[in-house]
Specification:
alpha/beta, Rossmann fold, PCRA, domain 4, five-stranded parallel β-sheet, four-stranded mixed β-sheet, 28 helices
């Protein structure tokens, strides 16, 4: 019966999560084996104690964004401030976008001996959030040196209120912990913190009781020790952690199921089956490190307590308690090179004793009692009717059978294709059409299957900005260029970016902004001559193209051209977007009684020149008459892409088609270059790492005949009509 089995391990905290993962099946599952895990301290299994101690650890810290957010993410904390788990995502996004990194405010930074700068502190971020709800930012307008955060409105106010209340309570109470107090005063303070941050609930009653017990003993200790002096938070925190680590021993021992417990004294209760797991080298007997001032450890005498001898005695008691079966396991081979690893010393001694004192009937005894397991539980050896290796797992049995069967490559994610979409999909917006050709596989999975393969939430930064790179640099560049082209003064914009926490502090930030401004100014000088003509009103798009209807709007139309530009390296998606807009524009002009609209489209961007420099580059599309025919082909490709993933990959396809369009490179060489873009290298990420492409095209060769045909149909007409502007 399950109650006849005891499983012991030197470190129960390390094995507890693994035990839960294996044994914790739903109550109605017929394979469920009742079990209990004893000897865990409340720090390892609690939902209140760890956040409570984390509050105390904040005193004297930098109040990093992830530190504070980790406390708020605890269900026992955010429920007390009227917040739910669904509210944590927006709060995390607010922290990221308002630039909160560390520090309560500038005075808190001054107390740490650092420059008293308000940027990237909690106070600056919270003020931006609250001000943004009260008034609009008006495209970067400052109010008393603060930049309102515009994206808080409507129902977000309740979430912001709970977040602000939590922050106010946290900073006020944690800062007050820096004042030394008597033990009685500390008892009152800690009790107030417990009630302020944690909502009492039935499932947390035991943990709350344990914390209150620890606080009560702190109060009693003052009278018992007749100690009435003031102490700091470090001593109180050390006492609480030491108390709570000990609390919890004995819970869950012998509850009627399989008992998992630590190897502790006084556990020599007879069991029919005793399993001792985790008896690895250096894991048992457990090491004890003596303090430097422990004179008894420096000069031991017979009769002194020895942790090592105690552990040896516990192991012997466990062996003597066995009535039927003793099972001992350890990691016997290295995960790096498969080399042998010896077990614990006590296990080695037991094996030596068996080898010296007993003999097997047909072969040495150790060969009969020592079993060398396979690395994986689904190894076919467990299902080959062997006496030493066996398993009752149906799942692993099926996996083993598949290993022995023919190894066919896995089929594609979508084999036969999806059903034809409804007729409503024939009405498509201009933006969706451009988005589709930017990633056809992603569009299919997002829109038709509702699958989003996001990489995960961004990590909260705890260091102030020292440099601006990557996406932050790109967004800053685009913002600067937009303000410059709209007639704004870049010097006036610096204070806005500084208030938003997007620039490094002090002189470093000023120098960086000047460098960014000079680069933006060079780009603006290049593009301004092409923007001198008067801007036309946007054109509304509502076209019937074969069986499809295309709707949307075209912006950025000047008297002499439709202008697209990106202050960054021009991507294939930018060329495709400009091409589709160009086709639609040339269809609209003759169909409307409007004069003065141009039929030319221009795309401007940057190209890398050397390692760091970037140079201006621009392309143009001349007016064309066969736009409807080309658009019809693109719409048909769009319709096919709603049924199955299209083998069109913007970067890889662009490399292949652009090299073929030059007419000097054979198809085989162009395909080799395209494959390099697809696979990537040590220095650049391959396009195959896109999660949507990887999901749909991870099996087989995606750069086959279908890829070549699809690429030519989409990019062939584009490259045939695109001309580079020479200056």
């Amino acid at each position: 019966m399950p109650g006849d089995i005891l499983v012991m391990t030197p470190d129960i905290e390390a094995y507890a999560p693994i035990i839960q993962a294996v044994f914790d099946l739903p109550p109605g599952n017929p394979k469920r084996i009742p079990f209990s895990i004893a000897d865990r301290n409340v720090l390892g299994e609690g939902a209140v104690i760890e956040p409570f101690l984390a509050l105390l650890r904040l005193q004297g810290s930098r109040f990093g964004a992830s530190q504070v957010m980790a406390i708020l993410e605890s269900p026992a904390v955010h429920a007390g401030f009227g917040l739910s788990e669904a509210n944590l995502g927006p709060i995390r996004q607010w922290i990221l976008e308002t630039g909160i990194r560390w520090g309560i405010d500038q005075e808190n930074r001054r107390d740490m001996g650092l420059p008293p700068l308000p940027q990237n502190t909690w106070r600056a971020g919270l003020d931006r959030l609250l001000l943004g709800y009260a008034m609009p930012g008006r495209d970067g307008g400052l109010f008393e040196g603060l930049l309102p955060y515009d994206l808080v409105e409507g129902s977000d106010a309740e979430v912001l209120g709970g977040f602000a209340a939590f922050s106010h309570q946290l900073f006020e109470r944690v800062l007050s912990l820096g004042t030394p107090r008597t033990l009685v005063a500390w008892s009152d303070t800690l009790q107030e913190m417990l009630e302020a941050f944690f909502m009492p609930m039935d499932e947390r009653a035991r943990e709350m009781r344990i914390i209150r017990q620890a606080i009560a003993q702190l109060r009693e200790g003052e009278d018992k020790a007749d100690f009435h002096e003031s102490v700091g938070i470090d001593l109180v925190r050390w006492y609480l952690e030491r108390f709570l680590k000990k609390e919890g021993f004995g819970l869950g021992f012998m509850t009627g199921g399989v008992t998992f417990c630590a190897m502790l004294p006084m556990r020599s209760i007879p069991f029919k089956v005793i399993c001792i797991i985790g008896m690895d080298d250096n894991a048992y007997p457990r090491e004890s490190r003596a303090l430097s001032f422990d004179l008894m450890a420096m000069d031991p005498r017979p009769g002194d307590r020895s942790r090592r001898n105690d552990d040896r005695n516990i192991f012997l008691e466990a062996i003597l308690s066995v009535r039927r079966t003793l099972y001992i396991s350890y990691v016997g081979q290295s995960i790096q090179d498969n080399s042998p690893i010896p077990p614990s010393v006590v296990v080695s001694e037991l094996m030596d004793y068996l080898d010296a004192g007993f003999a097997g009937q047909e072969r040495p005894l150790l060969e009969q009692v020592v079993t060398k397991h396979r690395l994986q539980a689904f190894s076919p050896a467990y299902f080959a009717n062997r006496e030493d290796l066996f398993s009752y797992s149906e799942e692993n049995s099926r996996a083993a059978e598949s290993l022995l069967g023919p190894r066919n490559p896995p089929p594609p994610f979508i084999t036969r294709g999806l059903a034809e979409p409804d007729e409503k999909w024939r009405e498509v917006s201009l933006e969706d059409l451009c988005r589709f050709f930017g990633n056809p596989a992603g569009f299919l999975l997002n829109r038709r299957l509702g699958i989003r393969l996001d990489e995960g939430s961004a990590i909260l930064e705890e260091r102030e900005v020292f440099d601006v790179k990557g996406l932050d640099r790109y967004l800053l560049d685009q913002d600067l260029l937009a303000r410059r082209l709209s007639g704004g003064n870049l010097r006036e914009v610096q204070s806005v970016f500084q208030a938003a926490g997007r620039l490094p502090h002090g002189t470093v930030g000023e120098c960086l902004f000047q460098d960014l401004g000079r680069e933006v100014e060079r780009f603006a000088e290049k593009i301004v001559p092409y923007r001198e003509s008067k801007e036309r009103d946007p054109l509304e798009v509502d076209l019937e193209i074969a069986e499809y209807r295309l709707k949307g709007r075209i912006d950025g139309i000047l008297e002499d051209r439709l202008l697209h530009y990106r202050y960054a390296r021009a991507r294939p998606q930018d060329h495709i977007r400009a091409w589709i807009h160009h086709l639609v524009l040339n269809l609209l002009i003759p169909s409307r009684p409007v004069e003065g609209y141009p039929g030319t489209t221009m795309l401007a961007g940057l190209e890398k020149k050397g390692r760091a420099d970037r140079e201006w580059k621009a392309w143009t599309f001349a007016p064309l008459a066969e736009g409807e025919k080309i658009l019809t082909v693109l719409m048909d490709i769009y319709w096919k892409g709603l049924v199955r993933p299209l083998p069109f990959f913007p970067r890889t396809s662009w490399e292949y088609a652009s090299r073929l369009s030059k007419g000097k490179v054979p198809m085989e060489e162009a395909l080799v270059k395209a494959r390099n873009i697809w696979k990537g290298s040590l220095y650049s990420r391959g396009e195959c790492e896109d999660p949507y492409f990887r999901r749909c095209f991870e099996n087989g060769d995606p750069l086959g005949k279908a890829f070549q045909k699809c690429t030519q149909e989409i990019l062939g007409p584009l490259l045939a009509h695109e001309e580079e502007i020479k200056e």
